[in-house]
Design a protein that fits this description.
Length: 137
Amino acid sequence: LLRTEKLPDLEVLQRAEEQVTVRATFPIAQAVICPLGCEKPYTAVRPDGQFAHQTLTRHFMRVHNCHSVQWHYRCRNCNTDFLPADHRYLLRVVNTHVRSCVSRWEITRKLGESEDLHGVRCDLCDYVGVSKRAVGM
């Protein structure tokens, strides 16, 4: 997907009888609609700014009879996927990545506005950052 395409906040990747795999795209909207069909709105961000995945998981279990809920995450800015097998504390890794990626995204947009900035590509997420050295040095 291109970075300009609108990515859904929540999407169902796989659903079996009592299992569901859901992907959340960060940064996520303050409120989301249940992706399993009941279209019930839920607050997706707790007052402390963290993703309220427990509330959504309980809803999937109680209303949709999904006894196993697996979460996958994706960064809205660079389209990086975060899978449960890759990280022990997955949500913590995602939140840290998104905070730094959003900063890089804002810098990247500003690169075109100022000619004295020099772009440097990030090896991790393929984003362009700003070098502290002047252009042409």
